[in-house]
Design a protein that fits this description.
- By secondary structure, the chain is of the alpha+beta class.
- It is built from 5 helices and 5 strands.
- Helix content is 33%, strand content 16%.
- It has a 5-stranded mixed beta sheet, with helices on both faces.
């Protein structure tokens, strides 16, 4: 039996009918047609499906869509402002922090949630957070460099650090 729910994703309302067992990742991709959120392991291990729910990074494959009703959800499609890339997106390009790109949306959303906190993360906090997502191509070095660069840019712009 399907249930009507309203999801607010990147500031836009999506009224959908879903079975209670449908994951947030599947509904974002299939019902809302926002395919930037990738589904990898479907067990919460790889982090490819990471989105931001009410300010916190969440594995969308582990959350039922009905649990997200009323929450503010952000996906990778919500980072850029028109043609202006988000500082993290720009840093990933500048530092060659992606190869195949499958894990990139998850890293971008995890990093966005981390960098939008009032204080920039320490190197230890950054490495701890990034270690929760998997990448099979880059070896993480350039991902860490990109997030550090974006952190400096974002906190310099906000008047911090």
């Amino acid at each position: 039996m399907k249930h009507p729910i309203t999801l607010t994703i990147n500031g836009h309302r999506h009224e959908v009918e879903v079975e209670p067992r449908r994951t947030l990742a599947d509904v974002i991709r299939e019902e809302c047609r926002l395919t930037g959120t990738h589904v990898g392991c479907e067990h919460g291990v790889c982090g490819a499906c990471t989105v931001i729910v009410d300010g916190d990074p969440v594995r969308a494959c582990l959350v039922f869509a009905v649990q997200a009703e009323g929450a503010q959800i952000r996906t990778v499609e919500g980072l850029a402002q028109g043609s202006q890339l988000h500082p993290l997106q720009q840093a990933f390009m500048d530092h060659h922090a992606l190869q195949c790109g499958f894990c990139t949306p998850g890293f971008l959303m995890l990093s966005t949630a981390l960098l939008e906190r009032p204080d920039p993360p320490s190197d230890a906090e950054l490495q701890e957070a990034l270690s929760s997502n998997l990448c099979r191509c880059t070896g993480y070095k350039n991902i860490v460099l990109a997030v550090r660069a974006a952190s400096k840019a974002m906190h310099a712009t906000s008047g911090a650090a």
